[in-house]
User: Fold this.
Amino acid sequence: MNRPNPEQLNFAVVGCGAVGRKRVLGLPGSSLLLYACDRDETRASELARLVVGCRSIVDSTVAFSDPRVAAVIISTPHSSLAPLALAAIRAGKHVLLEKPGALNSAQLRTLAAAAATEGVRVRLGYNHRFHPGLLRARRLIDAGQLGALMFLRARYGHGGRLGYDREWRADPALSGGGELIDQGVHLIDLAGWFLGAFDSIEGHAVTSFWDMPVDDNAFVSLRTASGQTAWLHASCTEWKNLFSLEVYGRGGKATIDGLGGSYGAERLTFHRMLPQMGPPETTVWDYAGNDESWRLETEAFIADIRLGRDPSPGLREGIRTLEIVEHIYRASGFPVSAAAL
Assistant:
Protein backbone atom coordinates (compact mmCIF):
# COMPACT_ATOMS: atom_id res chain seq x y z
CA MET A 1 0.00 0.00 0.00
CA ASN A 2 1.29 3.46 -0.89
CA ARG A 3 1.05 5.15 2.51
CA PRO A 4 1.26 8.92 2.96
CA ASN A 5 4.17 10.54 4.74
CA PRO A 6 2.79 11.53 8.18
CA GLU A 7 5.14 14.53 8.29
CA GLN A 8 3.14 16.16 5.48
CA LEU A 9 -0.19 15.69 7.25
CA ASN A 10 -2.44 16.51 4.36
CA PHE A 11 -6.10 16.26 5.40
CA ALA A 12 -9.53 15.57 3.99
CA VAL A 13 -12.78 16.35 5.79
CA VAL A 14 -15.95 14.32 5.28
CA GLY A 15 -19.02 16.16 6.53
CA CYS A 16 -19.05 19.90 5.87
CA GLY A 17 -21.70 21.06 8.31
CA ALA A 18 -21.17 23.26 11.35
CA VAL A 19 -18.82 20.84 13.10
CA GLY A 20 -16.85 20.07 9.95
CA ARG A 21 -16.35 23.78 9.41
CA LYS A 22 -15.06 24.22 12.97
CA ARG A 23 -12.67 21.31 12.46
CA VAL A 24 -11.31 22.79 9.23
CA LEU A 25 -10.87 26.25 10.73
CA GLY A 26 -8.94 24.58 13.57
CA LEU A 27 -6.33 23.04 11.29
CA PRO A 28 -2.84 24.44 11.98
CA GLY A 29 -1.02 26.31 9.27
CA SER A 30 1.43 23.44 8.76
CA SER A 31 -1.40 21.22 7.48
CA LEU A 32 -3.14 21.33 4.13
CA LEU A 33 -6.78 20.46 3.45
CA LEU A 34 -6.92 18.71 0.07
CA TYR A 35 -10.60 17.69 0.01
CA ALA A 36 -13.90 18.88 1.45
CA CYS A 37 -16.46 16.11 1.01
CA ASP A 38 -20.20 16.18 1.59
CA ARG A 39 -23.22 14.59 -0.07
CA ASP A 40 -24.50 18.14 -0.41
CA GLU A 41 -22.29 19.53 -3.18
CA THR A 42 -23.13 23.13 -2.30
CA ARG A 43 -22.05 22.65 1.29
CA ALA A 44 -18.81 20.99 0.22
CA SER A 45 -18.06 23.82 -2.21
CA GLU A 46 -18.72 26.50 0.39
CA LEU A 47 -16.23 24.93 2.80
CA ALA A 48 -13.64 24.23 0.09
CA ARG A 49 -13.65 27.91 -0.88
CA LEU A 50 -12.32 28.77 2.58
CA VAL A 51 -9.06 26.91 1.93
CA VAL A 52 -6.65 27.62 -0.92
CA GLY A 53 -6.10 24.52 -3.04
CA CYS A 54 -8.95 22.52 -1.51
CA ARG A 55 -11.18 20.52 -3.86
CA SER A 56 -14.86 19.89 -3.14
CA ILE A 57 -16.16 16.36 -3.76
CA VAL A 58 -19.27 14.29 -3.01
CA ASP A 59 -17.60 10.86 -3.15
CA SER A 60 -15.37 10.16 -0.14
CA THR A 61 -13.53 7.34 -1.94
CA VAL A 62 -11.79 10.00 -4.04
CA ALA A 63 -10.10 11.34 -0.91
CA PHE A 64 -9.51 7.92 0.65
CA SER A 65 -7.74 6.66 -2.48
CA ASP A 66 -5.43 9.67 -2.76
CA PRO A 67 -1.99 8.71 -1.34
CA ARG A 68 -1.29 12.35 -0.51
CA VAL A 69 -4.00 12.33 2.18
CA ALA A 70 -2.54 11.30 5.54
CA ALA A 71 -5.55 11.92 7.78
CA VAL A 72 -9.30 12.28 7.55
CA ILE A 73 -11.69 14.27 9.72
CA ILE A 74 -15.15 12.66 9.79
CA SER A 75 -17.99 14.85 11.09
CA THR A 76 -21.26 13.45 9.79
CA PRO A 77 -24.50 12.28 11.44
CA HIS A 78 -23.96 9.31 13.75
CA SER A 79 -25.09 6.59 11.33
CA SER A 80 -22.37 7.49 8.82
CA LEU A 81 -19.46 7.93 11.23
CA ALA A 82 -18.29 4.34 11.62
CA PRO A 83 -18.79 3.18 7.99
CA LEU A 84 -16.80 6.15 6.71
CA ALA A 85 -14.13 5.69 9.36
CA LEU A 86 -13.76 2.01 8.47
CA ALA A 87 -13.27 2.87 4.79
CA ALA A 88 -10.68 5.51 5.69
CA ILE A 89 -8.83 3.15 8.05
CA ARG A 90 -8.71 0.40 5.45
CA ALA A 91 -7.23 2.95 3.05
CA GLY A 92 -4.42 3.54 5.56
CA LYS A 93 -5.60 6.94 6.82
CA HIS A 94 -5.45 8.24 10.36
CA VAL A 95 -8.89 9.39 11.53
CA LEU A 96 -10.22 12.17 13.75
CA LEU A 97 -13.72 10.84 14.32
CA GLU A 98 -16.47 13.04 15.72
CA LYS A 99 -18.18 11.75 18.88
CA PRO A 100 -19.83 9.35 19.58
CA GLY A 101 -17.99 7.65 16.71
CA ALA A 102 -20.67 5.07 15.92
CA LEU A 103 -24.23 3.94 16.53
CA ASN A 104 -23.03 1.32 19.02
CA SER A 105 -19.97 -0.03 20.80
CA ALA A 106 -19.77 -3.05 18.47
CA GLN A 107 -19.08 -0.77 15.51
CA LEU A 108 -16.24 0.88 17.44
CA ARG A 109 -14.75 -2.55 18.21
CA THR A 110 -14.69 -3.25 14.47
CA LEU A 111 -12.87 0.04 13.93
CA ALA A 112 -10.37 -0.81 16.68
CA ALA A 113 -9.54 -4.15 15.06
CA ALA A 114 -9.09 -2.53 11.65
CA ALA A 115 -6.94 0.30 13.06
CA ALA A 116 -4.67 -2.23 14.77
CA THR A 117 -4.30 -4.16 11.51
CA GLU A 118 -3.54 -1.05 9.44
CA GLY A 119 -1.36 0.64 12.07
CA VAL A 120 -3.28 3.93 12.03
CA ARG A 121 -4.39 6.26 14.84
CA VAL A 122 -8.03 7.04 15.57
CA ARG A 123 -8.92 9.88 17.95
CA LEU A 124 -12.50 10.40 19.13
CA GLY A 125 -13.59 14.04 18.82
CA TYR A 126 -14.43 14.98 22.41
CA ASN A 127 -13.35 18.61 22.17
CA HIS A 128 -14.70 19.55 25.62
CA ARG A 129 -11.50 18.12 27.13
CA PHE A 130 -9.71 21.03 25.46
CA HIS A 131 -11.81 23.88 26.86
CA PRO A 132 -9.60 26.13 29.00
CA GLY A 133 -11.57 25.80 32.23
CA LEU A 134 -11.58 22.01 32.00
CA LEU A 135 -7.89 21.91 31.11
CA ARG A 136 -6.97 24.06 34.11
CA ALA A 137 -9.17 21.95 36.38
CA ARG A 138 -7.30 18.88 35.15
CA ARG A 139 -3.98 20.58 35.99
CA LEU A 140 -5.22 21.54 39.48
CA ILE A 141 -6.18 17.92 40.12
CA ASP A 142 -2.89 16.57 38.77
CA ALA A 143 -1.03 19.00 41.06
CA GLY A 144 -2.94 17.67 44.07
CA GLN A 145 -4.73 20.96 44.73
CA LEU A 146 -8.09 19.24 45.32
CA GLY A 147 -6.67 16.34 47.28
CA ALA A 148 -8.08 12.85 46.82
CA LEU A 149 -11.16 13.05 44.60
CA MET A 150 -14.53 12.02 46.03
CA PHE A 151 -17.21 12.69 43.42
CA LEU A 152 -18.24 14.65 40.34
CA ARG A 153 -21.55 16.29 39.47
CA ALA A 154 -22.36 17.56 35.98
CA ARG A 155 -25.28 18.92 33.97
CA TYR A 156 -25.45 19.65 30.27
CA GLY A 157 -28.47 20.66 28.26
CA HIS A 158 -30.27 22.80 25.73
CA GLY A 159 -33.87 23.56 24.88
CA GLY A 160 -34.12 22.32 21.33
CA ARG A 161 -36.04 24.36 18.76
CA LEU A 162 -39.25 24.14 16.79
CA GLY A 163 -39.20 20.90 14.81
CA TYR A 164 -36.34 19.42 16.84
CA ASP A 165 -38.27 16.18 17.23
CA ARG A 166 -38.36 15.79 13.44
CA GLU A 167 -34.63 16.23 12.85
CA TRP A 168 -32.13 13.39 12.32
CA ARG A 169 -31.21 13.29 16.01
CA ALA A 170 -34.76 12.14 16.76
CA ASP A 171 -34.50 9.17 14.38
CA PRO A 172 -32.80 6.24 16.18
CA ALA A 173 -31.72 4.71 12.86
CA LEU A 174 -29.64 7.81 12.19
CA SER A 175 -28.67 8.84 15.74
CA GLY A 176 -28.55 5.63 17.77
CA GLY A 177 -30.52 7.34 20.52
CA GLY A 178 -31.39 10.73 21.93
CA GLU A 179 -29.86 13.18 24.36
CA LEU A 180 -27.68 10.65 26.15
CA ILE A 181 -25.79 9.62 23.01
CA ASP A 182 -25.68 13.25 21.82
CA GLN A 183 -24.62 15.57 24.64
CA GLY A 184 -24.56 12.97 27.39
CA VAL A 185 -21.50 11.23 25.97
CA HIS A 186 -19.49 14.40 26.60
CA LEU A 187 -20.36 14.16 30.29
CA ILE A 188 -19.50 10.45 30.43
CA ASP A 189 -16.17 11.12 28.71
CA LEU A 190 -15.29 13.99 31.05
CA ALA A 191 -16.29 11.99 34.12
CA GLY A 192 -13.97 9.17 33.07
CA TRP A 193 -11.18 11.65 32.31
CA PHE A 194 -11.36 13.02 35.84
CA LEU A 195 -12.24 9.92 37.89
CA GLY A 196 -11.08 6.92 35.86
CA ALA A 197 -12.87 3.72 34.83
CA PHE A 198 -16.35 3.01 36.14
CA ASP A 199 -17.32 -0.42 37.42
CA SER A 200 -20.93 0.35 38.38
CA ILE A 201 -23.59 1.92 36.12
CA GLU A 202 -27.04 3.02 37.22
CA GLY A 203 -29.64 5.43 35.91
CA HIS A 204 -32.40 5.86 33.40
CA ALA A 205 -33.37 7.73 30.26
CA VAL A 206 -36.84 9.15 29.56
CA THR A 207 -38.80 11.06 26.96
CA SER A 208 -40.56 13.79 28.93
CA PHE A 209 -41.50 16.44 26.39
CA TRP A 210 -40.50 15.92 22.77
CA ASP A 211 -42.63 13.78 20.43
CA MET A 212 -39.87 11.39 19.41
CA PRO A 213 -38.90 7.74 19.97
CA VAL A 214 -35.59 8.65 21.64
CA ASP A 215 -34.74 10.09 25.06
CA ASP A 216 -34.80 13.79 25.86
CA ASN A 217 -33.40 13.40 29.40
CA ALA A 218 -30.93 10.98 30.95
CA PHE A 219 -29.88 10.61 34.58
CA VAL A 220 -26.71 8.58 35.17
CA SER A 221 -24.81 7.48 38.28
CA LEU A 222 -21.37 5.94 37.76
CA ARG A 223 -18.99 4.54 40.39
CA THR A 224 -15.35 3.51 40.24
CA ALA A 225 -14.02 0.42 41.99
CA SER A 226 -12.75 2.67 44.80
CA GLY A 227 -16.16 4.32 45.27
CA GLN A 228 -15.71 7.64 43.46
CA THR A 229 -19.05 8.67 41.99
CA ALA A 230 -20.16 10.71 38.96
CA TRP A 231 -23.74 11.98 38.86
CA LEU A 232 -24.71 13.21 35.39
CA HIS A 233 -27.81 14.79 33.86
CA ALA A 234 -28.12 15.43 30.11
CA SER A 235 -31.25 17.20 28.87
CA CYS A 236 -32.82 18.76 25.80
CA THR A 237 -35.60 20.24 27.94
CA GLU A 238 -33.18 22.61 29.69
CA TRP A 239 -34.80 25.62 27.91
CA LYS A 240 -31.84 27.86 28.78
CA ASN A 241 -28.61 26.27 27.54
CA LEU A 242 -26.47 25.07 30.44
CA PHE A 243 -23.09 23.50 31.13
CA SER A 244 -21.94 22.91 34.70
CA LEU A 245 -19.37 20.45 36.01
CA GLU A 246 -18.13 20.22 39.60
CA VAL A 247 -15.28 18.04 40.85
CA TYR A 248 -15.06 17.52 44.61
CA GLY A 249 -11.92 16.49 46.46
CA ARG A 250 -11.05 16.15 50.12
CA GLY A 251 -9.17 19.45 49.88
CA GLY A 252 -11.51 21.55 47.76
CA LYS A 253 -13.65 21.68 44.65
CA ALA A 254 -13.43 22.98 41.09
CA THR A 255 -16.50 24.21 39.22
CA ILE A 256 -16.62 24.86 35.47
CA ASP A 257 -19.63 26.83 34.25
CA GLY A 258 -20.40 27.74 30.65
CA LEU A 259 -18.73 26.84 27.36
CA GLY A 260 -19.00 30.19 25.64
CA GLY A 261 -21.64 31.25 23.15
CA SER A 262 -25.20 30.38 24.10
CA TYR A 263 -23.94 28.39 27.08
CA GLY A 264 -22.59 31.52 28.72
CA ALA A 265 -19.06 32.72 29.41
CA GLU A 266 -16.73 29.96 30.54
CA ARG A 267 -15.56 30.25 34.15
CA LEU A 268 -13.54 28.06 36.49
CA THR A 269 -13.97 28.58 40.22
CA PHE A 270 -11.62 26.83 42.63
CA HIS A 271 -12.62 26.64 46.29
CA ARG A 272 -9.70 25.49 48.45
CA MET A 273 -10.49 24.15 51.89
CA LEU A 274 -8.54 25.79 54.72
CA PRO A 275 -7.12 23.86 57.70
CA GLN A 276 -9.68 25.52 59.99
CA MET A 277 -12.42 24.82 57.42
CA GLY A 278 -15.13 27.49 57.32
CA PRO A 279 -15.32 29.70 54.18
CA PRO A 280 -12.86 28.41 51.56
CA GLU A 281 -10.17 30.35 49.74
CA THR A 282 -11.67 31.10 46.31
CA THR A 283 -9.91 31.72 42.99
CA VAL A 284 -11.79 32.48 39.78
CA TRP A 285 -10.61 32.31 36.17
CA ASP A 286 -12.78 33.80 33.41
CA TYR A 287 -12.27 32.80 29.79
CA ALA A 288 -13.35 34.98 26.91
CA GLY A 289 -12.57 35.01 23.22
CA ASN A 290 -12.76 32.38 20.53
CA ASP A 291 -13.26 28.68 21.23
CA GLU A 292 -9.80 27.17 20.73
CA SER A 293 -10.79 23.62 21.73
CA TRP A 294 -11.15 22.47 18.12
CA ARG A 295 -7.64 23.66 17.21
CA LEU A 296 -6.07 22.19 20.36
CA GLU A 297 -7.74 18.85 19.76
CA THR A 298 -6.49 18.75 16.17
CA GLU A 299 -2.97 19.57 17.35
CA ALA A 300 -3.21 16.66 19.80
CA PHE A 301 -4.31 14.40 16.93
CA ILE A 302 -1.34 15.50 14.83
CA ALA A 303 0.94 14.78 17.79
CA ASP A 304 -0.64 11.31 18.07
CA ILE A 305 0.39 10.64 14.48
CA ARG A 306 3.89 12.08 14.69
CA LEU A 307 4.72 10.47 18.04
CA GLY A 308 3.05 7.17 17.25
CA ARG A 309 1.10 7.36 20.51
CA ASP A 310 -2.32 6.04 21.39
CA PRO A 311 -4.91 8.86 21.23
CA SER A 312 -6.77 9.75 24.41
CA PRO A 313 -9.66 9.64 24.05
CA GLY A 314 -9.37 6.98 21.42
CA LEU A 315 -11.42 3.96 20.46
CA ARG A 316 -10.92 2.26 23.83
CA GLU A 317 -12.50 5.18 25.70
CA GLY A 318 -15.15 5.57 23.01
CA ILE A 319 -16.17 1.92 23.35
CA ARG A 320 -16.56 2.21 27.11
CA THR A 321 -18.61 5.41 26.76
CA LEU A 322 -21.04 3.72 24.38
CA GLU A 323 -21.21 0.64 26.61
CA ILE A 324 -22.45 2.93 29.39
CA VAL A 325 -25.00 4.51 27.03
CA GLU A 326 -26.22 1.07 25.97
CA HIS A 327 -26.55 -0.08 29.59
CA ILE A 328 -28.77 2.92 30.41
CA TYR A 329 -30.87 2.48 27.27
CA ARG A 330 -31.48 -1.20 27.94
CA ALA A 331 -32.40 -0.50 31.56
CA SER A 332 -34.84 2.20 30.40
CA GLY A 333 -36.54 0.18 27.67
CA PHE A 334 -35.01 2.03 24.72
CA PRO A 335 -33.72 -0.10 21.83
CA VAL A 336 -29.98 -0.32 21.32
CA SER A 337 -28.80 -0.17 17.73
CA ALA A 338 -27.63 -3.53 16.41
CA ALA A 339 -26.24 -2.08 13.18
CA ALA A 340 -23.01 -3.84 12.17
CA LEU A 341 -20.20 -2.82 9.87
In short: The CA atoms of residues 15 and 198 lie 33 Å apart. Residues 132-290 form a domain with the Dihydrodipicolinate Reductase; domain 2 fold (CATH 3.30.360.10).
